[in-house]
Amino acid sequence: CQVIVHDVNELTEKLFPIVEAMQKHFSAGSGTYYSDSIFFLSVAMHRIMPKEITRIIQVDLDLKYKTNIRELFDEFDNFPEGAVIGIAREMQPVYRHTFWQYRRENPQTKVGEPPPDGLPGFNSGVLLLNLEAMRQSKLYNQLLEPTMVQKLTEKYHFKGHLGDQDFFTMVGMEHPELFHVLDCTWNRQLCTWWRDHGYSDVFDQYFRCEGQVRIYHGNCNTPIPED
């Protein structure tokens, strides 16, 4: 087993010029903080990692594994043609909230609607990055360009604060073909913040997850069930 440690400052230095333009749309701060770039690592991982690394799984720290992570690697084999990233849906109505203006102007839209037919957005706690596919996808790399980011944020009236997750969510509204949607059991989010903040009537449509949980995600400091 080989362990390679990466210097955060070095990574940030490489990332900043690539993601600077999107930070003002998807960062919690009011400006573009240099240090915030690290929250966009997954977005540009294919441009930073050595060419010989073709696939990476990126995970949050607040996870509990109920199965062998090797099984998650097998999901790369299920990517449809053109998909570059594997990601699970967001399990709270956070993007129903974020896209309120677009939803009001487009009452028939699936944007922000719950599964199975809606587009609830993504959660970046568990990410499968097919770096080779990301490098080769003309479309994906075009979407990293500042003009494209600007165009999409204007179209969707988008202002977020969740970093890479916001970028993937917005891009997924426009180009769902770039994503392989992981089953909710691979990223069983436990946070229920939005249930108590105006969305109790629809909350369970987002939060429902059938099947044997393979990875628990204790987001927003939610305790993870003991075995």
UniProtKB/TrEMBL annotation:
SUPFAM superfamilies: Nucleotide-diphospho-sugar transferases. Gene3D superfamilies: Spore Coat Polysaccharide Biosynthesis Protein SpsA, Chain A (3.90.550.10). Pfam families: Glyco_transf_8. One of its GO terms (biological process) is protein O-linked glycosylation via N-acetyl-galactosamine. Keywords: Transferase. InterPro entries: Glyco_trans_8 (IPR002495), Nucleotide-diphossugar_trans (IPR029044), XXLT1 (IPR042465). GO terms for cellular component: endoplasmic reticulum membrane. It comes from the Eukaryota. One of its GO terms (molecular function) is xylosyl alpha-1,3-xylosyltransferase activity. This is XXLT1 xylosyltransferase. PANTHER family: XYLOSIDE XYLOSYLTRANSFERASE 1.
